[in-house]
Amino acid sequence: MANKNSQIFGGDWTEKKLNIFEKYLRAYIMALKEQNFSKVYIDAFAGTGTIYTKDGKLLDGSARIALSSSPKFDKYFFVEQDYHKYLELKKMIREEFPELEHKVVCLRGDANELLNYIINRVNWGSSRGLLFIDPYATQFDWSTLVNVSKTYAIDVWYLFPFSALNRMLTRDGEIVESWRKKIDSVLGCSDWYDFFYKPDPQISLFDEEKEQYIKDVDTNELKGYIIERLETIFPAVSKNPRVFYNSTNSPLFLLCFAVSNKSKKAIDLAMRIASDILSR
Description:
Layout: E1 7-8, H1 12-31, E2 38-43, E3 50-52, E4 58-60, H2 62-68, E5 75-80, H3 83-96, E6 104-108, H4 111-121, E7 127-133, H5 142-149, E8 154-160, H6 162-168, H7 177-187, H8 192-196, E9 197-199, E10 213-215, H9 219-231, E11 236-237, E12 242-245, E13 251-259, H10 264-278
């Protein structure tokens, strides 16, 4: 039974997301097994290590999956903002993985600030990293993603908040300023409005004082737009991200994969593994 600090959310899509991530993580650490790099795992929204889904399933969260993998990473960074979840995460590590405590750094606070702190702390010339970004909504800033890309050493799985963004993109194009700023922050640009909206053809010919706009983008177009945005900062991005839907078949999240390493060999290997997993 879940306690008051455990994570209770998601459904069937949560298990699918974690399965994709786990398959890549295990393939990644095996691929780097013989290479002379320090292997770094980073979880920007680590949670508690355990997930109780709304449909009654008990799942290992990303933190526990990473710690359970073999071979082991040389360093683990876990970021969690919620105080109670942070304490539960530390307890899980202490009780279940005491032999790894010296390799683990748990940080509590804003994922953007702390991820930038981690990036600046690691020598990426001699390290390779795997980053999992799994926000609840629109907490993750594009500027942080840019800093990740500039390491040229991190593979990224990013669960993009499809539904949260879609809710802010109102049908009539009337978007409050705070939402506009948040969308700018999530997408890293301010010209998104021209892509998502077009002049409303139903506007009255007698009302020419203010041009009206209407939302004109479907799921595939929105997915394509996000991929194109990621391609502006990463050398390689999967063209086949996984869309997760809710019980009413509305898109919730888009699981994206990107490689910051410029090496063709590294890109080919990472993309081959990710593409195989995402195509299943």
